[in-house]
Amino acid sequence: MPLYRMISNRAIADGSFTGDLGELGFFVADQGPLDDFKNWRQISRDDFKALLTQAADQFPDLAQGNNEDQSHVTFFVHGYNNSWQEAARRYEKLCADIFSGADSMGLCISFDWPSKGSVIDYLPDRLHARECANDLADVLSELFDWLIGKQAIAAKDSTLACKAKVSLISHSMGNYVLQKAMAAAWTRKNQPLLVSLLNQLVMVAADVDSDLFDPTASDGNDGNAVANLTYRITSLYSGRDAVLGASAGLKHFGARRLGRSGLANYPPQGKDNVWQVDCSSFFPESISGMDIHSAYFETKETVSLMADILTGLDRTVLEKLG
């Protein structure tokens, strides 16, 4: 069984990924370093699904009351200004921190999209993000159908119920990819209500509008899609994030950045499954404003917070834990 899994729509040239959009491909790796393309091997979509299903079937079969101990299949969507090597290294570290060893929370899949990996390419990256959302929407739509089918089977035989929760961690502009993908998937499935695709969504330093979940927002229908397809959404933000300060300056349109200022209105009207955590105090003063944007994945306290969020601990408990 492979240790690492990646879905990517980067083009491939000269034996490696590029910064251009290509065909959706499925990859697995048995060992690192994951930023070495030679350690990955491409397999078919069907083989990828079969291996993923086999891995999830090996998760512990727990009683319903042990919800917080249930294993996860978690997707990770990287952010803007990440080359594929940087995204692979971040994914590898996330796997080491949360999805390995005796305390592993399950398995993690990287969704890798072709960020240009350059500050001056912010707007082309945003365009790429919107284009890449269609491929992620395909993945999420297929997953939605599989989960609905699994629920129908479990209704007839509880021993065949899915053993995994499905969660997602998205960083920076990866949240914009997710936003557009969830909106497309929700529309394709006739805007279902009270049917969760994701159990936990962790929006880390989200480069999306701070009013995304407000009814009057310009992207309000996207916010409805994300909220309706997710059991709980947690936004991790920091006013010290200078990268998102620059992002707001480059955009000149829309609202403030969710990952820098937090939710425009908290809690958002009619969406009690959306909450936020100001992570500024987790980062030492020695970390510069430009480094804050990625420090969520380098700081023990914020990594632990992500893990606690995935377990499904109630927000009041997390707040009391500080």
How many helices does DSSP assign? Answer: 10
**Structural domain count:** 1
Tell me the strand percentage band.
15-25%
CATH class: Alpha Beta
Rg, nearest Å: 19 Å
CATH superfamily: Alpha/Beta hydrolase fold, catalytic domain
Return residue spans where pLDDT drops below 50 for at least 5 consecutive residues.
Answer: none
User: Structural class, judged by helices and strands?
Assistant: alpha/beta
Helix proportion: 25-40%
CATH topology, anyone?
Answer: Rossmann fold
Span of the ends, CA to CA:
38 Å
Extended strand count: 9
Biggest sheet statistics: 9 strands, mixed
Gross geometry: globular
Mean of residue pLDDT? Answer: 88
What CATH architecture do you see?
3-Layer(aba) Sandwich
Order of helices and strands: EEEHEHEHEHEHEHHEHHH
Strand order of the largest sheet: 3-2-1-5-4-6-7-8-9
Structure description:
The termini are far apart. The model has no long low-confidence stretch (mean pLDDT 88). This protein is 39% helix and 21% strand. The chain is built from 10 helices and 9 strands. The protein is globular and about 45 Å long. The chain has 322 residues and is an alpha/beta fold. It has a single domain (69-84, 92-321), classed as Rossmann fold (3-Layer(aba) Sandwich), CATH 3.40.50.
Short characterization:
This protein has a single domain (69-84, 92-321), classed as 3-Layer(aba) Sandwich (Rossmann fold).
Which terms summarize this structure?
single chain; 322 residues
List the topology elements.
Layout: E1 4-13, E2 16-29, E3 41-43, H1 45-57, E4 71-77, H2 84-98, E5 106-112, H3 122-156, E6 164-171, H4 174-188, E7 198-204, H5 220-228, E8 230-237, H6 242-251, H7 258-261, E9 274-278, H8 289-295, H9 300-311, H10 315-321
Helix pairs in contact: 3-4, 4-5
